[in-house]
User: Which sequence fits this backbone?
């Protein structure tokens, strides 16, 4: 006999399993973001230096991760690199690596954009009081760039969290993959289960991403209010 | 004999192919106030910016306090602590309070004791009438107040030499007097050596010991101030003075 669809969420350990999947998702996104943001700031600063070969290499790195679709990147790292270069990592670690490299690439562009939009006069005023390059970045340019880049960075974080939904393609037991398993296992008893499982997943993603997106909007509004006096 | 603090010899500057400074030669004595005058685009700002390494020059030498400057960025970082500069656009660092703006150079570059530097910063702020604004952020200050803080920020490094690049050009007229008084005070009380680029002819006349008149990247004349304003040597300088409303 058919059950009402929503009960599929509470059969056995289904709900705990979905929460566990969500935890995997959040963990991968969080670690990738932390590592990627730090690496991205370093790369972004390097991209504002005059050294031409360095700039070209970092630009190519950015374009590679920006142009190649994330799915292709995941497949590349998951299927091709192990075979060609004998580079083996479990799916979740590999996913974290790919996402961190992607975040670093995007972040480098955000940081670079923010740094070069700090007015030239600020740089000169800093030099005029004898600051060296490190001090100029540390005390003058980076603090000013951060307030410009925070909204874009939060938006990047929401994109990363959403994109973790691709992880099932490389067999990571994320929330989507577990949801899919539950749907398939309960297909006979709960024909409308798919609606409820994905509905819950929708809610999960919404609860994580919406506050971030709201926060980004609020910070941007505050910054503009401050900038316009 | 008066000690020379700065000598510029045969300085040439190009922007790509454009020749902007031609064979610049002059010196500044210790305690002397030199104003750089000339029409817009004559190279005044470019020249003054060469003197603390914000612009590169392609030929010639600058000698500061008896030592010829080897113009690498690292050397300039040292020299800039001795040559203070204030700009037209009074660029305080908006992320720092007034006091932190002032302390950045003394504590991070010169590693002065923070407590002593702070006390001195406060004295300097008092001198320019802004002692109540130490903890304000630049956005809470008027243009004239920002420019006064910018002057204090430069002085906090104990420079031997100050460069003022059109420091009143973007201020409201009623703010200009206050800034000029501070510069005048530096000349009279501290006997600070300085080069002042300005369009305020009355002020130039009042403060300068000597005028360097620049046009199209050439120094046309260097004359004691009194003589320059009463009877300049060149026809171009006379025309320039006639065109200025003062």
Assistant:
């Amino acid at each position: 006999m058919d059950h009402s669809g929503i009960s599929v969420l509470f059969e056995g350990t289904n709900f705990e399993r979905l929460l566990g999947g969500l935890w995997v998702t959040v963990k991968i996104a969080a670690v990738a973001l932390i590592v990627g943001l730090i690496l991205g700031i370093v790369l972004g600063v390097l991209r504002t230096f005059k050294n031409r070969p360095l700039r070209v290499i970092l630009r190519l790195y950015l374009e590679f991760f920006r142009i190649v679709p994330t799915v292709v990147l995941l497949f590349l790292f998951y299927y091709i690199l192990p075979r060609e270069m004998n580079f083996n990592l479990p799916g979740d670690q590999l996913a974290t690596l790919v996402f961190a490299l992607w975040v670093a690439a995007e972040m480098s562009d955000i940081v670079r954009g923010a740094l070069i939009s700090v007015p030239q006069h600020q740089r000169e005023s800093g030099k005029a009081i004898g600051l060296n390059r490190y001090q100029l970045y540390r005390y003058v340019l980076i603090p000013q760039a951060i307030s410009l880049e925070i909204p874009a960075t939060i938006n990047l974080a929401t994109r990363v969290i959403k994109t973790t939904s691709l992880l099932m393609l490389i067999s990571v037991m994320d929330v989507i993959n577990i949801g899919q398993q539950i749907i398939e296992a309960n297909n006979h008893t709960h024909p409308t289960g798919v609606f409820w499982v994905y509905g819950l997943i929708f809610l999960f993603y919404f609860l994580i991403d919406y506050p971030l997106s709201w926060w980004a909007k609020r910070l941007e509004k505050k910054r503009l209010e401050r900038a316009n006096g | 004999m008066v000690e020379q603090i700065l000598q510029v010899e045969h300085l040439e500057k190009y922007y790509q192919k454009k020749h902007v400074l031609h064979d610049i030669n002059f010196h500044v004595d210790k305690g002397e106030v030199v104003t750089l005058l000339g029409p817009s685009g004559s190279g005044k700002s470019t020249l003054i910016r060469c003197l603390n390494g914000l612009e590169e020059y392609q030929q010639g030498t600058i000698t500061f306090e008896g030592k010829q400057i080897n113009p690498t960025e690292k050397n300039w970082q040292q020299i800039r602590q001795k040559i203070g500069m204030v700009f037209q656009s009074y660029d305080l660092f908006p992320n720092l309070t007034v006091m932190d703006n002032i302390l950045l150079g003394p504590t991070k570059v010169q590693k002065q004791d923070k407590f002593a530097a702070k006390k001195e910063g406060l004295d300097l702020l008092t001198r320019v009438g802004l002692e109540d604004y130490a903890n304000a952020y630049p956005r809470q200050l008027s243009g004239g107040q920002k420019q006064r803080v910018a002057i204090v920020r430069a002085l906090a490094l104990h420079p031997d030499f100050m460069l003022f690049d059109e420091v009143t050009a973007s201020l409201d007229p009623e703010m200009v007097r206050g800034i000029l008084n501070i510069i005048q005070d530096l000349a009279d009380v501290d006997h600070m050596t300085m080069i002042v680029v300005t369009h305020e002819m009355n002020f130039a006349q009042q403060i300068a010991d000597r005028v360097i008149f620049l046009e199209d990247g050439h120094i046309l004349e260097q004359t004691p101030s009194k003589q320059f304003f009463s009877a300049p040597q060149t026809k171009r300088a006379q025309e320039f003075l006639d065109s200025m409303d003062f």
